[in-house]
Amino acid sequence: MSQVTPEVLWAQRSSNAEPEKNFIYLTISVPDVPKENLKLDLQPTGLTFTGHSETLKRTYHLELTFYAEIDPAESKVHHTDRNVELKLRKKELNDEYWPRLLKDSKKVQFLKTDFDKWVDEDEQNEAPEDDFSQFGGMGGMPGMGGAGGDFGGIDFSKLGAAGGMPGGDEEDDESDDDMPALEGEEETKEEAKEGAKEEKDATKAAA
Questions:
Q1: How far apart (Å, rounded) are the C-alpha atoms in residues 86 and 64?
Q2: Paired strand residues for 96
Q3: 174 domain residue, yes or no
Q4: What's the domain range around 21?
Q5: Which helix (H) or strand (E) element contains residue 30?
Q6: Theoretical Cys-Cys bridge with 48: which of 41, 130, 133, 145, CB 3.0 to 4.6 Å?
Q7: In CATH, what number is assigned to the domain containing residue 87?
Q8: Side-by-side strand order, sheet with 76-79
Q9: Is residue 69 within 8 Å of 7, Cβ to Cβ?
């Protein structure tokens, strides 16, 4: 029986201070592979996965070599009837994202970005953590309250900046409003002249 390479979706987060927010999120799409039929070997430098589906008569096999090292002891695996989800703790704390998942820069067809989980590097502090609730024991969860306070600060500063805007807008609006009003008046006068002319013509015609 031939082996099939499963589709893999990935996303990531990074932090140079909080290990639990410095991870790779990996989803291996292997429908109908029961837990007893899969073998996952997770190493610091990569992983090897083999899974067999009786219903689909298919054997999945995957070997990945990561761009940088992970910490298998701090990584988590969650199995569902549709896929195997992994939350791989990056070994090195770093604010910067990995430029790619794999060591080899060559593009592979089976690997895709998980857009449901992906956030841009500079927006990740605002990303919800509940995407990863199925892993349990999320160290980052209780701290979200503090982060929420920070967001409030950001919002207030935006509001503060926006607060200065209406004054400028009002001045612009006044100057803008004057112009269309003048144009409008001219048009109105022209239309009035045209209307009077048409009325005269109509009166003459009726006479």
A1: 13
A2: none
A3: no
A4: 3-142
A5: none
A6: 41
A7: 2.60.40.790
A8: 76-79, 83-89, 23-29, 7-12, 111-113
A9: no
Cβ contact 123:4 at 8 Å = no
Q: Per-residue pLDDT for 26 more than 60?
A: yes
150-189 pLDDT tens trace:
444 444 444 444 444 444 444 454 445 555 555 445 555 5
Percent of the chain with pLDDT over 90: 55
Domain total for the chain?
A: 1
Q: What is the pTM of this model?
A: 0.62
Four-point Cα dihedral 127, 132, 137, 139, nearest 10: -20
Are 39 and 59 a contacting pair, CB within 8 Å? no
Contact by Cβ (8 Å): 27, 84: yes
Burial of 44 (0-12, 13-18, 19+ CB in 10 A): middle
200 occurs within a structural domain: no
| Pick from 71, 26, 23, 67: nearest CA to 49 | 26
